[in-house]
Design brief:
The protein is α+β, with helices and mostly antiparallel strands and 296 residues long. 29% of the residues lie in helices and 35% in strands. It is built from 10 helices and 15 strands. Strands 5, 6, 7, 8, 9, 10, 11, 12, 13, 14 and 15 form an 11-stranded antiparallel β-sheet that branches. A hairpin with a 2-residue loop joins strand 13 and strand 14. Helix 8 packs across helix 9. The longest helix has 14 residues, at 157-170. It is globular and about 55 Å long. Bound molecules: adenosine-5'-triphosphate. Adenosine-5'-triphosphate is lined by residues 8-11, 39-42, 64-68, 91-93. Residues 8-11, 39-42, 64-68, 91-93 line the site of adenosine-5'-triphosphate. GO terms for molecular function: kinase activity.
Length: 296
């Protein structure tokens, strides 16, 4: 068994390297070959993961923040034979770790690997890129990623929603054309989020219906929002019933095309990073990625 650790020395306020030794010790009983590669710049993690898949590695561990996880997934995903992904979260948001209940404390995440199992999860493809959590159009995702971690752990989904709501209210509506499963709809909205799991942009249990391996894209569109109807949505968001709210359109599909009707340009956000401008072609790749999770 072969494992590769992709370590971003700049992650987690440059603390990532401090976890290297412990991680190697924990992997030793299960893996007879363990290698470490350090990233220096953009796309290193993606290239290292791609090479590892072609060199028959069984496991690739991302020791870094969400940027490193995203690149690692983008390196693993295009291959026929795909190593499992391990996540030692060193970021501020750690979306995928949150969604899969992987400990957010790096020490605990390393300890988890002593007794872990592989889980196959869906990932998505948007234009030529892979994503693990959510593609959004509108200002909400940016806002969500700006919420302080302390606020997050105290308030949970509520903190995200409040941050998001502020941005949604301040953002301009836009007209989109959605094409999915032979249906065509034109909507005036202030936010569109297309996600794989319930942790839409870190919303925790925001969408109770969504499971990381249900083979579906969960499409959530919020119609024009003012303070009044934002406050109406709030209680349903906290209880995970946002889809029942009258200002929200929610459906599932396995692929969708999103284009603008009036605006000339609008950019997307993919898993908290800048994505391509619209139009977007999005599809789900069911159970395409194996991730190490708690064995319980
Ligand atoms: N040795 C390095 N020094 C500085 N930057 C690096 C190095 N290696 C990779 N990077 C850059 O680090 C970024 C990814 O950082 P990281 O994995 O910490 O994600 P993040 O999204 O910044 O995390 P978060 O915002 O959650 O803390 C990428 O843009 C990559 O180009």
């Amino acid at each position: 068994m072969k494992a590769l650790i992709i370590l971003n020395p700049s992650s987690g306020k440059e603390k990532a390297k401090g976890y290297e030794e412990k991680l190697v010790e924990v992997l030793k009983p299960r893996y007879d070959e363990i290698n470490i590669k350090y990233t220096k710049k953009k796309n290193d993690a993606k290239n290292f993961a791609y090479e590892a898949a072609n060199e028959d590695y069984d496991l690739v561990i991302s020791l870094g923040g969400d940027g490193t996880v995203n690149e690692t997934v983008n390196g693993i995903a295009p291959n026929k034979k795909r190593p499992a992904l391990g996540i030692i979260p060193m970021g501020t948001v750690n979306d995928l770790a949150r969604a899969l209940d992987i400990p957010l404390d790096p020490e605990e995440a390393i300890d988890m690997l002593k007794d872990s199992k592989e889980k196959e999860i869906d990932i998505g493809m948007v234009n030529e890129r892979y994503f693990t959590n959510v593609v959004s159009v509108g200002n909400i995702a940016k806002a969500v990623h700006e919420v302080e971690s302390e606020e997050k752990s105290k308030l949970g989904p509520l903190a995200y929603f409040i941050a998001g709501t502020k941005e949604v209210i301040n953002s301009e509506d836009f007209l989109v054309k959605l094409k999915y499963e032979n249906k065509l709809s034109e909507l005036k909205i202030s936010l569109l989020a297309i996600g794989l799991s319930g942790a839409l942009a870190g919303f925790g249990d925001f969408l109770k219906e969504a499971k990381p391996d249900d083979g579906k894209l969960h499409v959530l569109a919020i119609k024009s929002l003012d303070i009044g109807n934002a406050l109406k949505i709030l209680p349903s968001a906290v209880t995970g019933k946002i889809t029942e709210s009258e200002n929200v359109i929610y459906f599932t599909t396995d692929n969708i095309n999103v284009r603008l009707v009036e605006h000339e340009e609008k950019e997307s956000d993919i898993d908290g990073e800048k994505g391509p401008n619209l139009p977007l072609d999005i599809k789900v790749l069911p159970k395409h990625l194996k991730v190490m999770i708690k064995n319980s």
